[in-house]
Each structure stands twice: as C-alpha cells, then as structure tokens.
Write a structure and sequence with these properties.
This protein has about 100 residues and is mainly α. About 75% of the residues lie in helices and about 0% in strands. The termini are far apart.
Length: about 100
Amino acid sequence: MASVAAAASVVATCALLRSTDLKRVVAYASVAHMNLALLALAAGTAGAKRGFWIMMLAHGMLSAGLFAAVGHVYQQAGKRDLKSWGGVSWQAPVWV
C-alpha cells in the first residue's frame, strides 16, 4: 500500500506541475495530499493513524477553502487558465 501511495503522489504532483487550469491544480494537489495521508496510514503505528486523521481533517478544511478561493477568483477574472492571469490584481479588489 505504501509504494502505491508514494507512486500515486508522485504522478499527481507531476500532473499538477503540468496543468495550467487552476481548478485542476487544486484537484491534483488534493490527490497528492491524500496519497501522503495514505502513506502515513501505511506505516501502521498508533502515531501514524492519529496523523492520518489529523491530515484528513486538515485536508477537508484546506480543500474547501482553496476551491472557494478559486471560485471567487474565477468570478472576478472570468478565467481559470493561469497563463492568462496577468493583471488579475488590477481586476480584483484588495482583501483586507
């Protein structure tokens, strides 16, 4: 299980680095993060199991926030392609 989780994390990270769509970047990062959590679970110790559940909780909160932020930026800019994001700071208001 550990080798599959490690390999899947590497594959997801490579896909993340090639993607230019922001929503796909967040999704691939989510997959890579979950595979790292699975890698911790594969260790089998009590501490690894606690760490797995902490990572699951953190992943849920982080992913929800990231997808909400992507949705907000998409509403402001009208596009998700990272290559066409030059000048987004001029289009979106400053968050304080």
